[in-house]
Amino acid sequence: MTGVRDSVGDWPSLLVQDWAETRDTLHMWTQVVGKVRLAMEPMLNHWWQVPLYVSARGLTTSVMPHDGRAFDIEFDFCAHQLHIRSSSGDARQVRLEPKSVSEFYRETMTALRELDLPVSIWTMPREIEHAIPFEEDSEHASYHPEHARLFWRQLLAAHRVLTAFRSRFVGKVSPVHFFWGAMDLAVTRFSGRTAPEHPGGAPNCADWVMVEGYSHELSSCGFWPGGPGEGTFYSYAYPEPAEYAQHPVCPEDAFYSPEVGEFLLPYETVRTAADPDATLLEFLQTTYEAAAERGGWDRSQLETTR
Predict the structure, then answer these.
(1) Closest-CA residue to 47 (of 181, 168, 167)
(2) Name one Pfam family in it (predicted).
(3) Residue 161 phi/psi, 5° resolution?
(4) Is the dihedral of CA 36, 39, 40, 42 positive or negative?
(5) Are the C-beta atoms of 150 and 187 separated by less than 8 Å?
(6) Strands 91-95 and 177-179: what pairing?
(7) CA-based nearest residue to 218, from 256, 187, 264
(8) Which sign, positive or negative, has the C-alpha torsion 169, 172, 178, 184?
(9) Omega of the bond leading into 251 within 30 degrees of 0 (cis)
(10) Rounded to an integer, what distance in angstroms lies between the CA atom of residue 64 and that of residue 37?
(11) What pLDDT, on the 0 to 100 scale, is given for residue 4?
(12) Distances (CA, A) of 280 to 76, 185, 221, 230, 283
């Protein structure tokens, strides 16, 4: 019925262990589509031309140019279809169902060619260990529709709060976007100063890629569907200022992980809070303040009083 909320609420429960196989397959599918966007878009600072965006039905590339025409690609986690739509009015769909990455890759490339939108991509996944070229990957072949839908709803809730947090900043700040390399939804604030050259080291990702991504001093936060429990909210600074890890942050369950160099907050802490949005905003704000105060950011020039 129109206007009726989903019965499980705005912050759904989804244990990582319950959907890990679907998650890993979907991760590779988003890399296929993300690399199409990478191939078609002009370069932007920090690789902002490559992410996907949360949509009213899933994840989308937004509009992309192609030889005088335009097209977009959207993961629809309500109808469980990949929609490929051309500005000519033509469209193709690829079913989201249990199938291998190699099959998904082949069907997607075929659909693009049928629309006269051929795209050539590098088929090696980025930022993961034990990467398998898309056309050879029969290992990842799981898709549970309800798990995919619940993940999208996690993204919708996180996107809402990250967007509100983004609005508090008048300095340089990224969109709220989904990076398919690490499979996380993120937003990044910048101090306005350049940063030391990043050392790189991400798996299957050239060091110069990371150098571009971290060319300027930043504080980044977001949601990652990994770790124990139901996923993890995170926040980190680059470069990490002195005594950053000792800065007091909220809520009580938030903590600094020396292993990953980030502040972390379990998704279920937010989901089960009396006011989930306010709880997450508190985490985002206090971890940003750790970077801004310890790093000597000019907060009076970067933050809005609205």
Answers:
(1) 181
(2) DUF5996
(3) -75, -40
(4) positive
(5) no
(6) unpaired
(7) 187
(8) negative
(9) yes
(10) 7
(11) 42
(12) 26, 14, 11, 15, 5
Site of tokens 């992980």: 257
Q: 154 is written with which tokens? A: 């996690």
**Virtual CA dihedral for 238, 209, 223, 250, nearest 10 degrees?**
0
Asked if 41 and 50 touch (Cβ cutoff 8 Å), the reply is yes
Q: Calculate the CA 8 to chain-centre distance.
A: 23
pLDDT digits (tens, 9 = 90+) for 97-120: 999 999 999 999 999 999 999 999
Residue 17, amino acid: Q
Q: Where are the domains of the chain?
A: 16-136, 145-302
3-class state of residue 160 by DSSP: helix
| DSSP type of residue 46 | G
pLDDT band at 3 (very low <50, low <70, confident <90, very high): very low
Taking the model in full, what pTM does it have? 0.95
Residue with tokens 């990455």: 101
- The three-class DSSP label of residue 193 is strand
Q: How far apart are CA 301 and CA 171, in angstroms?
A: 7
With the C-alpha atoms ordered 265, 266, 268, 269, is the resulting torsion angle positive or negative? negative
Angle between helices 276-294 and 145-166 (to 10 degrees): 50
